[in-house]
């Protein structure tokens, strides 16, 4: 044994020797048979807890993926031995698909339930159905025989609340006031319930959840954020919040709900329960499912997950996400919550093609969208910061109540703010058809046909569509609604209720777009002899579709806020189903992104991640500074030396003291303090658990017992206490960079490999360490921000 | 100077010292001001050639990206100084978009031209238009007034060749024989021209090009593969090859053509001309463009590029690819080569929804597709290997001629092989409409209405569709066509003409699908009272769409051959435009992939990459073996020691001898042979160029001049020859792994960071090197293949 260790040491200090690794040290046979580094032995962890993470910690992707590959290898090897193991191996291979199927089914069902419930409760604010209180307004009148096609939403079965009490027979203004009051009461009740439930049972259920999901997907651990309580409470409170009439949407939270489903379902599959990296693949797919059910756009959902949310998105996940998104979309469609057997939320069909010159107003809408995005992000972040730093933050319930009251108070008088945002968008997107009774379609025809509803296929000769008096009113109301929506969306996003901003943003854009569209239309009709319109608008023809403008505006505003690009266009494309309108959508989305990026690089999600100080390493933006690894590594100039462990010369007591004195989450192991050449890296958590385990279970371990990370035991006197051998928890292949490595490359390595820390070497000597937090702090510093904000709080 | 160097050396051999890097060595001021490693100085390369690559070499992605970031930084810094520089910086930022626009326009125009030319020349084999020889059959008859709607493709202006010569008035069989002969003559002429042109001007223009593009995108350099000659010749010969009636498609080669366009256009933009990594981003976008124009499916094209072709696909490229793909699709549509203002190649609209039970035949089609894929890959690779290893490979022209003759000879008698593959697919996909005159729609109605063409909307009560005698003939012909297509596709793919296999694969699948579809249809009609069909097929109703089966079969076969998944489904989805049929398509594509994967892991492209020995590191499949870096690194056990340079003790002569004696493409630089601690890495090409440059331009450099890689000069006698300082070409941050690093992690690092080599360290000492080729050889070895096949040949 003595010889062995001597030759081993001799080797370590010998000049360049190739292959000495397996030729010199005889006791290498100890570990050589399994031919793998000890890192992989964590699989059969006899000591429980080794290889897991604490809350609010970052995972090590490389380690997790190694663990999974090892598990897979073991299963493959065993499968050759027995039929049972073979069956197990097959079931293991298909468990991923089964999980996706379950996630799709569950998310689709939940989304359908949320849609139906929200629809019903929104209508409940106005009245109740006499045929059965569980019918919403639309279903109530469908069931009725007395409804004419013209007035689909008026039927005797649907009673507004006040009419239920025959005592108070109110008329005109009185009736209006009581309805107003009832509307506010219901809104208040819903919002209050929502915020109370969130506060009481699941504080993580508030907000949209996308910033946190991005952080979790990048490898952070927030226990309970995707748990079953969050799922239940978020589902319930989402319905309440949407029904309360606040300026928020259910699309973002649906992503959170789908991720909760995925996380809960992961617990039934060992493969995914035990491995943080594998679970994140599933969560990436789940966020695709969320968007798929929110908009009925499976391809858009997958691209959203790829572009906006995911951090690690291998091709296998792409394929599985797509499968899950499709299953979810089909589940939702068979539930048929909108009652029209359409998969999509806003189905539109336009009849008139667009003209190349219309790109100018579309680009204008893009600019508006970009400005709105930049304004919204600044205003919302300022408001959230105010909430965080002043006493406002101590009264979340009061805040919700006040905002709800104000919203309801101001929203009720205007038709377009009273209706739910999705209905509003639906109406704005709509091309005025033959039988459309909406005020937005109240054109007067100048060819003398009946006013009110005019044939939209004006090309048939029914005359041009001039604005009628009702449309004038509608336009003013829309302008007012635009203003209100903008203000309330800023204030609402970030409150302690589930709140998404897809729908409010789209509503803002759709209103702006529709307004511009109607203006353009009137311009074209009145100046169809002008130079611009001559070649394109024949008199009496209907050459501009205001609904298309609304759609382009919605895309522009959503793009400005979220900075989505391809996924946005694809979602919009899936809404309309025609390649025709991709170019207008893309022109607007591109302009919007450029304008918004010029005013501030961050999307709303990234701004919230930064506001909350999550340790998120943005994969999109390149690190462009000229710093080197030596400028970032710890310890900094003047700090005490790097805390290291040595391979063989430390005692249990010394190590325990080091652990107690420092808070680092890992320690490099070197040959000796005098010769700081790197041997490996050991994680604090593993070290603590192993030492406790040794103290408890290994006989004769005392404070003076030496700790050995070496392959073979050094010579020792027989009276010495037994050594604690910890090579099994040592990572023998830590990542290293040299001091001269540019930070841009270091950042790239961290992003692409998902590292947690990296050691800094110069000419073979260990000089320092760079962790993910060091990088984030450095990036904050380079951007002139407070580096200490990078902490979870 | 002496002091400085002393302290520098002292530092290098001192124990752990943090920050010594900028505190100890005074002469650090020499390089500190620009605060960057010398690697980045390559930008202002005074020595031309440094930082470029030789042909058939692998690029270093990290270096290329560093170069680009540096360039960007420089432009940004300058832009703050003057308005001109600011404008330049803006134009630089938008040059990427401009390039995408140009690629889209050029590829769209070329694709349109190819479509029109191929269509015309295919018809030329049969006859000519009297109104003008440049009309194809369809256009010729459109222009004619004497065409009835029923017989759109018969008009007096279109003459088959023989009728042009009034002397020989042939009838019946004689006419047929002469037409047969003319058909074969034209086919032979086209194929002969194609192969001669390819042989004479651009040998790289043959084949589909996708395997090579995959290799190039992964970082390999093949000069001329994407050059202007390849572009011109490939465009021309593609038209010839398609028109010759060989069993090949133009879709794969269109990807190559689009990439050539991109590469040629890159030469006009310094940013992309100079940087291999940036150029590869553009090429990724170009392959999306290729698929976009081939199928009229921009989203599918982007996903194809992402899933199948690209190696490095950042989000920015996603967005740009999408833009370019859209521009190309719109350019193509405005050229309108199909004359129907449809963007897509095979526009279909089905009227009957599918039933859940139909998933069983769809899965059967998937199994067929998988079997076909596996068979095709094996047979084609065996055939190509035969061509490579026997004298067959010496007569490529003869091979093409013989195959063309055989194809034409066997194809002419059968209607479905005589027509071009795209027309065939179109006809097979088609739902039998009211006015369809195709033989495939010759049903006899059992309710007594006129036979021939029967109303497809049988739900109206026009009765069920039984197979008529014409349809029986058609079925037999189709079965024969299936067999012929299968054999000829195997033989054709890989010949020295441009040849894609998308269309032939789809044709095989479509035929099989249509056959199965018709069988199912008849089964349903005859057994509509049976247990299976009762709940679903009411008597007289038309509940099965054979066209849908053809589409599903096409997707399955294409999936089996290429192993595409999401992109395949999305392309098919864009062809139909309905979410309805995604589930059948996905079921078939999934089954097909699983079946094919069970029989062989490689797609046809990967198989061809391996056949040709390209150094391609597959990103999809995980490396699952338990080897360590030490098992793979060079030098192997028993080999001579690693060739290294030392920091300061080598002379010009020694280095030149080392260069002459070895063929390595780079050398590690260590402190000294006795203390092999890594300083950096220098590339052979850079070293050779620098030494030549020093010999030529630096005064007093002789063979005994020392070569210095150190920061500051060591003490030297005044009489010594002047030193050659080469620190500027030294990469101070080479990537390192430890000997214990599992190969799975090493492979992951190579893939994700795009490395070219990586040094292997143990406890601070350099032990070996791993290059991309070592990894590929090792992987081949682990898969029991010949490791020496990994070489470009």
TrEMBL record, chains A, B:
Its main location: membrane. Keywords: CBS domain, Chloride, Endosome, Ion transport, Membrane, Transmembrane, Transmembrane helix, Transport. GO terms for molecular function: voltage-gated chloride channel activity. The gene is LOC107742294. The chain crosses the membrane at residues 231-248, 254-270, 282-306, 356-377, 397-416, 474-495, 501-519. Residues 633-699, 729-787 form the CBS domain. InterPro entries: CBS_dom, CBS_dom_sf, Cl-channel_core, ClC. It is found in: Endosome membrane; Membrane. Belongs to the chloride channel (TC 2.A.49) family. The lineage of its organism: Eukaryota, Metazoa, Chordata, Craniata, Vertebrata. GO terms for cellular component: early endosome; endosome membrane; Golgi apparatus; plasma membrane; synaptic vesicle. PANTHER family: CHLORIDE CHANNEL PROTEIN (PTHR45711), H(+)_CL(-) EXCHANGE TRANSPORTER 5 (PTHR45711:SF7). Pfam families: CBS, Voltage_CLC. It is a multi-pass membrane protein. This is Chloride channel protein.
């Amino acid at each position: 044994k003595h010889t062995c260790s001597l030759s081993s040491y001799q080797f370590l200090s010998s000049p360049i020797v190739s292959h000495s690794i397996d030729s010199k040290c005889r006791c290498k046979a100890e570990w050589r048979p399994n031919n793998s580094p000890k890192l992989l032995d964590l699989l059969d962890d006899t000591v429980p807890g080794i290889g897991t993470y604490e809350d609010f910690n970052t995972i090590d992707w490389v380690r997790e993926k190694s663990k999974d590959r090892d598990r897979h290898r073991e299963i493959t090897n065993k499968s050759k031995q027995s039929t049972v193991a073979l069956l197990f191996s097959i079931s293991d291979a298909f468990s991923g698909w089964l999980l996706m199927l379950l996630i799709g089914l569950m998310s689709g069902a939940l989304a359908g339930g949320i849609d139906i419930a929200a629809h019903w409760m929104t209508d409940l604010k106005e009245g109740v159905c006499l045929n059965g209180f569980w019918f919403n307004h639309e279903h109530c009148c469908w069931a009725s025989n007395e409804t004419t096609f013209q007035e689909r939403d008026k039927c005797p079965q649907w009673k507004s609340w006040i009419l239920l009490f025959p005592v108070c027979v109110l008329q005109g203004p009185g009736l209006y006031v009581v309805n107003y009051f009832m509307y506010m009461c219901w809104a208040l009740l819903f919002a209050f319930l929502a915020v109370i439930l969130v506060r009481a049972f699941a504080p993580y259920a508030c907000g949209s959840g996308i910033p946190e999901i991005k952080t979790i997907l990048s490898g952070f651990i927030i226990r309970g954020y995707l748990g079953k309580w969050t799922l239940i409470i978020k589902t319930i409170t989402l319905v309440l919040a949407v029904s309360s009439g606040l300026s928020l949407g259910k699309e973002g939270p649906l992503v959170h709900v789908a991720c909760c489903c995925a996380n809960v379902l992961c617990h039934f599959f060992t493969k995914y329960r035990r491995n943080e990296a594998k679970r994140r693949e599933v969560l990436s797919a789940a966020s695709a499912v969320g968007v798929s059910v929110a908009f009925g756009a499976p391809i858009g959902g997958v691209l959203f997950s790829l572009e906006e949310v995911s951090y690690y998105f291998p091709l296998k996940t792409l394929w599985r996400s797509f499968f899950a998104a499709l299953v979810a979309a089909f589940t939702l469609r068979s539930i048929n919550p909108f009652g029209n057997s359409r998969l999509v939320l806003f189905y539109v069909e336009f009849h008139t093609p667009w003209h190349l010159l219309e790109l100018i107003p579309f680009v204008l809408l893009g600019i508006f969208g970009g400005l709105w995005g930049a304004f919204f992000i600044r205003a919302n972040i300022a408001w959230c910061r105010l909430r965080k730093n002043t006493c406002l933050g101590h009264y979340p319930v009061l805040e919700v109540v006040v905002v709800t009251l104000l919203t309801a108070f101001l929203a009720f008088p205007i038709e377009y703010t009273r209706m739910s945002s999705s209905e509003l968008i639906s109406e704005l997107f709509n091309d005025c058809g033959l039988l459309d009774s909406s005020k937005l379609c109240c054109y007067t025809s100048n060819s003398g046909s009946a006013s009110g509803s005019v044939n939209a296929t004006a090309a048939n000769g029914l005359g041009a569509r001039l604005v009628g008096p009702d449309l004038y009113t509608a336009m003013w109301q829309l302008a007012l609604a635009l203003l209100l929506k903008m203000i309330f969306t800023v204030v609402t996003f970030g409150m302690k209720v589930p709140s998404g901003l897809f729908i409010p943003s789209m509503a803002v854009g759709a209103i702006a777009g529709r307004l511009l569209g109607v203006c353009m239309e009137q311009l074209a009709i009145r100046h169809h002899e002008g130079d611009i319109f001559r070649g394109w608008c024949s008199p009496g023809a209907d050459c501009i579709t205001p609904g298309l403008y609304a759609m382009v505006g919605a895309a522009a505003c959503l793009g400005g806020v979220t900075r989505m690009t391809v996924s946005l266009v694809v979602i919009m494309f899936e809404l309309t189903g025609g390649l025709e309108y991709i170019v207008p959508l893309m022109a607007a989305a591109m302009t919007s992104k450029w304008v918004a990026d010029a005013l501030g690089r961050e999307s709303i999600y990234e701004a919230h991640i930064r506001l909350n100080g999550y340790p998120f390493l943005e994969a999109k933006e390149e690190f462009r500074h000229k710093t080197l690894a030596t400028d970032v590594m710890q310890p900094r100039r003047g700090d005490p030396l790097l805390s290291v462990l040595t391979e063989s010369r430390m005692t249990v007591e010394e190590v325990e003291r080091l652990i107690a004195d420092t808070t680092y989450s890992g320690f490099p192991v070197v040959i000796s303090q005098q010769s700081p050449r790197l041997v490996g890296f050991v994680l604090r958590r593993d070290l603590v658990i192993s030492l406790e385990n040794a103290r408890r279970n290994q006989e004769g371990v005392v404070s003076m017992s030496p700790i050995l990370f070496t392959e073979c035991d050094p010579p020792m006197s027989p009276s010495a206490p037994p050594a604690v051998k910890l090579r099994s928890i040592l990572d023998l292949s830590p990542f290293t960079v040299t001091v001269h490595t540019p930070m841009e490359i270091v950042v790239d390595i961290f992003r692409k490999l998902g590292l947690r820390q990296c050691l800094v070497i110069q000419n073979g000597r260990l000089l320092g360490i760079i962790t993910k937090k060091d990088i984030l702090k450095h990036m904050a510093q380079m951007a002139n921000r407070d580096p200490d904000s990078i902490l979870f709080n």
